[in-house]
Amino acid sequence: MFSIATFNVNSVKARLQNVLTWLDAAKPDVVLLQELKCETDAFPRMEFEDKGYNLAIHGQKTYNGVAILSKYPIDDVITRLPGDDADEQARYIEGIISLKGKAVRVASAYVPNGQEVGSDKFAYKLKFYERLRAHWAQTLRHHEIAVLGADFNCAPYAIDVLDHRSQDGMVCYNALEREQLRALMNLGLYDAFRLKHPDVKQFSWWDYRGAGYEKGNGLRIDHVLLSPLAVDRLHDCIIDEEPRKQEKPSDHAPVVVTLNI
DNA sequence: ATGGTTGAACCTCAA
Prior knowledge:
By secondary structure, the chain is of the alpha+beta class.
């Protein structure tokens, strides 16, 4: 069995103990991290290497930042999403994991939040989705076991928000964003959690403001999307709320997929 | 909810 998780940590330095404790408990083979909020050189490498992880890091000062942790070698790393050479934001990293003679393509993405529907940041969010879709349209032609884990900042279905009637139209649950996420999925990328749990209403993010977690008011915006060959091997997908219950948590919970490899 | 919290870095922005 091979396990791969996506986790928006909201600062890897502020979250170090929380994340290390979770790694000891969950023991994932690969972790796709988002929102490092630190430069590549400032990443606390040793703490993760001591637990047996190889690292591929694409950091940035203050904002964004993504990384891949892997118990297996990581090769052919790319850190730019094609389609906008002027984009300096560190929101994408991809590589090839080699295990048991098999190659697994993995990618970690931090889709922009968009802040407010109609804003410049919202336009950047929609553009980012278009770039993600163009890149994965090409990537899927390789017919690999491929896994895209991300903070998509978009709840895809009505069940993925607390009350879809009152919340429809807000940022992260808006027809324009859902259209983009669905178009990405329609390339042939499958939402692992929804495949395994068609009727479960569970969130992956809760706002710090207004005690969102305590009130059960969140969104399912962190997803692990699988290529068809990865779906063939899908064993389970869970949202692990344990780190969200601890002191000084991220506002996100990790999503963990297990594959029969 | 023209509010509420958190993190990084600065005296505010992004989420």
